[in-house]
């Protein structure tokens, strides 16, 4: 973690110019900064009210949490901090995410909504991000998982952001986990059972994750007062229970492609378990990641690929006709083999996206 002078960050953000403002919330603002050497970063600055009070509590908490976590491709990582000792002004410098939030992609991008395969990819990456937090020692509870806190980098890889409300479990045993922190989060994503500090557990993040999954596939807001049933959970659960998948899914996308129906049904079933009113019946994030990988990888099995074989051959023939063909094989734990090739989940979803596009032609 780098230590920057306050003047250095002021220069990087053009003295916190409005032209560099990329985000704003109740606790402060986020600015785009360009460091010496050209590296682009994001800078979190507490609100004027908090600065007047010299209250860096939330920023200090986020710095503490992020600096304790391993660098990973699934989380918006810390780059460094800046602290002016005389004025007690403090700044957090993090990775710059150039393609905005999942919330914007879903709700403010009607001309080009994410494909089904891309949505499945987002769900899996988010699950892995939360799993990393929960597997930490002690476990980290994010407490504010929502679509506006999932950001895209320059390659459209989603990462979990904003750890200002995050807390650590006071005890490794979840049944005995107590914290002085009062319940916090965002209405619609917040677990209704999280009413007192002693209710703090990893299951509140699991609930929020389930809400985001429902939002990703339906493109409905977590709370929408213009709808007859304002809560996405109350609206979606009966439909999922009755296997009415098409009615849950984003209507802008038309008919579900045949290669995605089973996968989306599987993911919606997982989401339904995540938002169960019975906390004990909610799966852990490790179980969720395993089940999501199974949802994706099982689609490679022969009977399903046999049904898609003509389209698959057409795509491969087209690729072979180009001047260069590159096959990227990444060896992650969830990699699967097809013949002599090793395919990652990302590879599989990339191919499924090609198939999905072909089926809509």
From TrEMBL:
PROSITE patterns annotated for this entry?
PROTEIN_KINASE_ATP, PROTEIN_KINASE_DOM, PROTEIN_KINASE_ST
Keyword Lipid biosynthesis: yes or no?
A: no
The keyword Kinase appears for this protein = yes
Swiss-Prot/TrEMBL keywords:
ATP-binding, Kinase, Nucleotide-binding, Serine/threonine-protein kinase, Transferase
Q: Which residue spans adopt a coiled-coil conformation according to this UniProt entry?
A: none
- Which residue intervals define the domain Protein kinase in the entry? 16-304
Q: Which residues make up the binding site for ATP?
A: 45
- GO MF term set: ATP binding; protein serine/threonine kinase activity
- Please give the family membership noted in the entry: Belongs to the protein kinase superfamily.
Protein name listed in UniProt: Protein kinase domain-containing protein
Organism, scientific name: Papaver somniferum (Opium poppy)
What are the top taxonomic ranks of the organism?
A: Eukaryota, Viridiplantae, Streptophyta, Embryophyta, Tracheophyta
